[in-house]
Design goal:
The complex is a heterodimer of chains A (199) and B (266).
Chain A lengths: L2 H11 L4 E2 H5 L7 H18 L3 E6 L2 E6 L4 H4 L13 H13 L2 E2 H8 L4 H9 L3 E6 L7 E5 L1 H6 L18 H10 L2 H15 L1
Chain B lengths: L1 H13 L12 H11 L9 H15 L5 H22 L14 H27 L25 H10 L18 H14 L3 E2 L10 H16 L3 E5 L6 E5 L9 H10 L1
Antiparallel strand pairs in B: 1-3, 2-3
The chains are: A alpha+beta (199), B mainly alpha (266).
């Protein structure tokens, strides 16, 4: 029995992502490094054989999933449950938590300008976020971070799969500089605005 | 420069700015939309115009909102009015961005916009992930529910189709209860018929009487005579006509070839 086949059988039989440790439990002869090698071997062989599926990493877990180009065929089956699309409020809140973790509810609400308690409750229910710490301030507020489920939902290995904050179109690091550079202008222009309104 | 800015203000400010509040996650979202859709320099927000547009957008949808959500929009409206008021106050000589009452609002708007970019990234990742399916996603299919079929024909076609349906058969004529019939009677009938014809349709033994008793008697008679090898029973295929032909122990001495030809016709 080859290591690759044991790993393949384990991944094949699982309906959820398995961590390297979980896979290595399948046999005494396995350890994490050998599982990593086996997964790489299997990935290459699936690639060479042009299989309709591949082994994907979701968070720290590995799972056999179909390749995206076969989605149109699978979507024809009514019984295939669609992965739920998160609401804009949920996505906003997750975005803030993913980049600012650990972060408390009050800080999230400051960024969003709206209440976050109900959306946080939903995200906790769905295990997309979890309490990771308690803050220092008054009442030791709960601080939130994203979960393994978050990575699975968005198909990421790690939050580092998200673009770095300074790669985004609106970059907060440069914001301060921009504001510095713009300093004298606003007040002068605002006078124009005020006069325009008053006339 | 100043005059251009102010005339633009007047033109754009006079246009009714139609927005649906439901589209917006919150006040920052609405404010950012007002600024970005009018191509306004975010570092130089014309507070008076934006405040006016913000408040007029609220006037339509505010009452329909849950009170908490309405409060969030009103809080922003009051912030805008406060900033507008501060801008009208005489200011210190040195122009200082930090002293600009709009600075904090601009910072929040840019921060919000920054996270909107992250939202787009997450949406893209979510859509991409949705194109991968795990094993077991195609569940056993439930019994198909037949979708209602939409009629795709004209009245003329419908009537033509209706016309093709044959007229209902005339109601069965009432027959007085026939006298009881015996297998013996059918045996003699069968013998008589076989003496005259090369083959006899099984129907003919009971059809004229049309009752079940006759059919049963005819069947038993046919089976009895078949057992005695007086006749043979033939049927080409299930539900085809049943034919009764003279058997080996011919009572009439019909030549066999006649039987063959009869079979050929059948």
């Amino acid at each position: 029995m080859k290591v690759e086949q044991i790993v393949e059988a384990t991944l094949f039989a699982s309906q959820t992502p398995l961590t390297l440790e979980e896979i290595s439990r399948a046999d005494e002869g396995l350890d994490v490094e050998r599982v990593v090698e086996a997964i790489q071997f299997l990935r290459d062989s699936y690639e060479d054989a042009e299989r309709a599926f591949q082994i994907y990493q979701l968070g720290d877990g590995f799972q056999v999933l179909t390749r995206p180009e076969y989605a149109p065929y699978l979507e024809r089956f009514d019984s295939v449950p669609r992965a739920p699309h998160l609401s804009p409020a949920a996505l906003e809140t997750l975005a803030i938590i993913a980049y600012r973790k650990p972060i408390g509810r009050i800080e999230i609400e400051e960024v969003r300008g709206v209440s976050a308690s109900s959306v946080l409750r939903t995200l906790l229910d769905w295990e997309l976020v979890q309490v990771v710490a308690r803050g220092e301030g008054l009442g030791r507020p709960l601080l939130y971070g994203v979960t393994q489920k978050f990575l699975e939902h968005f198909g990421m290995k790690d939050v580092s799969d998200l673009p770095a904050a300074d790669e985004l179109p609106v970059v907060l690091g440069e914001l301060q500089q921009a504001m510095e550079a713009e300093r004298p202008k606003p007040l002068a222009a605002e006078t124009a605005d005020s006069t325009g309104e008053s006339s | 420069m100043n005059s251009i800015a102010s005339s633009q203000d007047t033109i754009q400010g006079s246009e009714p700015f139609q927005v649906s509040l439901e589209r917006f996650e919150g006040p920052l979202d609405l404010l950012l939309h007002l600024i970005r859709s009018q191509d306004i320099d975010i570092f130089d927000i014309p507070i008076a115009r934006i405040t006016e547009q913000f408040v007029s957008a609220l006037s339509d949808g505010l009452e329909a909102m849950p009170i908490e959500r309405a409060g969030e929009f009103l809080e922003m409206a009051s912030t805008l009015v406060r900033i507008k008021a501060q801008l009208l106050l005489p200011r210190p000589e040195q122009p200082d961005w930090d002293a600009d009452p709009r600075a904090e609002l601009v910072r929040r708007l840019l921060e919000y916009e920054h996270f909107q970019d992250v939202v787009h990234v997450l949406e893209g990742a979510e859509a991409q992930r949705g194109r991968h399916f795990a094993k077991g996603f195609v569940e056993s299919r439930p019994a198909p529910t037949l979708a209602p079929v939409e009629l795709e024909l004209t009245l003329a076609e419908f009537l033509a189709a209706a016309a093709r349906i044959p007229e209902p058969l005339p109601p069965v004529v009432f027959r007085p209860p026939s006298q009881t019939v015996t297998v013996g009677e059918k045996v003699s009938l069968l013998r008589r018929l076989l003496a005259k014809a090369k083959r006899v349709s099984f129907d003919r033994l009971f059809r004229p009487w049309g009752t079940r008793a006759h059919a049963i008697a005819a069947l038993l008679a046919a089976l009895e005579l078949a057992r005695q090898q007086v006749l043979r029973i033939e049927q080409v295929k299930p539900f085809a006509s049943i034919w009764l032909l003279p058997g080996e122990r011919k009572q009439t001495g019909d030549p066999p070839e006649a039987t063959e030809s009869a079979e050929g016709i059948a």
